């Protein structure tokens, strides 16, 4: 089949026109293409019959989509499987951390000793048929009114023994405990029903030296040897971390000082366990000094221009030179001599060097080159020469104002029986007093 295109022309023939066939053109005829219906797969992709590049790209894309879908479904399935386990594990970890924190907090806050540095024996009696609550009350109030007891919390003590199942094991009896014991140790002692630890008392008198105290402790059977006690007092570094006043002594390190702790072992009556260590005994004495030397003393010392160590040094000299009723007068004399840049001429300081109680010395002894010798060196000696009590320290801080005003600069022993002193303003008056009273002194 073919199509022809006819082209006519109209010639000019005088008004009438007839068409004339000018040209015939054959046009190509195309057959109608068949209708193609694409084939679709399950994913909605067109299925192409040929095996060309397009098909390969489409197939790869489809395969990737299927693979990604499977992977996503696998991940979701795996997460659904392990998420409960992970949540449970996280809960367990958090719970354990909270428990550990709670245990540590309770241990540090309530189970530790009330005062790790206080070995003072405290006797407690637990009556028969006492329950955990009653025992907790006894331990809490064991220190007496206004004082800390042996535990910091009554309710926690009961919870502690109940939790450990030891409530029924607490035994009646009399026990010697102390504030440096933890709750576990206290419970162990009460549950074991062990007999109380033996305690001993000893008294340190005003004016005793470190060496005298060591000898007293050995005599009482508390220490077997004075050596370690003396070494601890000589060095004192073991206590510098716990006591600021000891740290200052150690840091200043006065040249020639024999015992760093001389002057700071406060005289008093103490009770300790029979098996107490040298450190425990010294701690009790240093604690007592800290209790006595209050802020009032610190402020007064600052007013007078004294350091703590200077107060203790002067007090230790006054303690050895006079009886209590003359303390403030001797203090006034020392104050005046220091103000006038005069040597203190204290017999007690030279006696400390020579380890003698005699107050009469040869010229050779008076000339001994020693930082404690106040006949040879002006100012204060290298350190305290005894352990003074409260009265002597107060005498340093509150000297006799009248004697300062009137200018008393000398004293000597007047009555060996009472220990009363004779005071003088001038060297001539002092020499007359010595000549007058020396026959009474004896040897």
Write the topology of this structure.
Layout: E1 3-9, E2 20-27, E3 39-40, E4 46-47, H1 53-111, E5 122-126, H2 132-140, H3 154-163, E6 173-177, H4 183-192, E7 199-203, H5 210-219, H6 227-235, H7 237-240, H8 244-252, E8 269-273, H9 278-292, H10 295-304, H11 308-321, H12 327-339, H13 347-354, H14 363-366, H15 390-397, H16 401-406, E9 410-415, E10 420-424, H17 427-437
Antiparallel strand pairs: 1-2, 3-4, 5-6, 7-8, 9-10
Protein model, in words:
By secondary structure, this protein is mainly alpha-helical. It folds into three domains: 76 residues, 2-Layer Sandwich (Dna Ligase, domain 1), CATH 3.30.1490; 92 residues, no CATH class; 151 residues, no CATH class. 47% of the residues lie in helices and 11% in strands. The protein is built from 17 helices and ten strands. Strands 1-2 form a two-stranded antiparallel sheet. A two-stranded antiparallel ribbon has the order 3-4. Strands 5-6 form a two-stranded antiparallel sheet. A hairpin with a 5-residue loop joins β3 and β4. α11 crosses α12 and α11 crosses α15. The longest helix is centred in the first third of the chain and has 59 residues. The radius of gyration is 52 Å and the shape is elongated. The protein starts with a strand and ends in a 6-residue tail after the last helix.
């Amino acid at each position: 089949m073919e199509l022809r295109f006819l082209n006519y022309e109209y010639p000019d023939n005088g008004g009438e026109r007839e068409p004339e066939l000018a040209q015939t053109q054959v046009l190509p005829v195309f057959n109608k293409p068949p209708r193609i219906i694409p084939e679709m797969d399950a994913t909605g992709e067109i299925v192409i019959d040929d095996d060309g590049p397009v098909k390969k790209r489409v197939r790869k894309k489809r395969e990737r989509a299927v693979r990604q879908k499977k992977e996503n479904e696998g991940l979701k399935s795996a997460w659904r499987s392990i998420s409960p386990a992970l949540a449970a594990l996280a809960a367990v970890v958090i719970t354990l951390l909270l428990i550990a924190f709670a245990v540590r907090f309770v241990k540090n806050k309530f189970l530790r000793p009330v005062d790790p540095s206080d070995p003072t024996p405290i006797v407690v009696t637990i009556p028969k048929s006492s329950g955990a609550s009653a025992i907790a009350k006894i331990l809490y109030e064991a220190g007496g009114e206004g004082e800390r007891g042996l535990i910091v919390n009554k309710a926690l003590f009961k919870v502690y023994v109940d939790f450990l199942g030891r409530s029924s094991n607490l035994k009646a009896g009399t026990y010697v405990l102390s504030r440096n014991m933890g709750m576990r140790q206290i419970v162990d002692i009460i549950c074991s029903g062990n007999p109380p630890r033996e305690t001993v008392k000893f008294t340190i008198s005003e004016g005793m030296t470190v060496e005298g105290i060591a000898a007293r402790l050995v005599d009482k059977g508390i220490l077997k040897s004075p050596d370690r006690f003396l070494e601890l007092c000589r060095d004192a570094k073991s206590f510098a971390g716990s006591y600021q006043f000891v740290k200052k002594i150690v840091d200043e390190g006065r040249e020639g000082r024999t015992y760093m702790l001389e002057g700071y072992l406060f005289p008093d009556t103490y009770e300790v366990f029979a098996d107490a260590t040298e450190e425990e005994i010294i701690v009790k004495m240093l604690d007592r000094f800290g209790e006595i030397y209050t802020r009032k003393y610190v402020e007064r010392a600052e007013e007078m221009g004294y350091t703590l160590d200077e107060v203790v040094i002067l007090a230790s000299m006054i303690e050895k030179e006079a009886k209590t009723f003359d303390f403030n007068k001797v203090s006034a004399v020392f104050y005046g001599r220091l103000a006038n840049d005069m040597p203190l001429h204290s017999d007690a300081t030279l006696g400390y060097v020579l380890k003698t109680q005699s107050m009469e010395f040869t010229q050779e002894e008076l000339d001994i080159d020693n930082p404690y010798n106040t006949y040879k060196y002006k100012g204060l000696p290298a350190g305290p020469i005894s352990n003074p009590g409260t009265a002597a320290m107060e005498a340093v801080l509150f000297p006799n104002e009248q004697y300062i005003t009137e200018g008393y600069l000398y004293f000597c022993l007047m009555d060996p029986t009472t220990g009363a002193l004779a005071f003088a303003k001038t060297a001539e008056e002092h020499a007359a007093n010595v000549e007058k009273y020396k026959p009474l002194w004896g040897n």
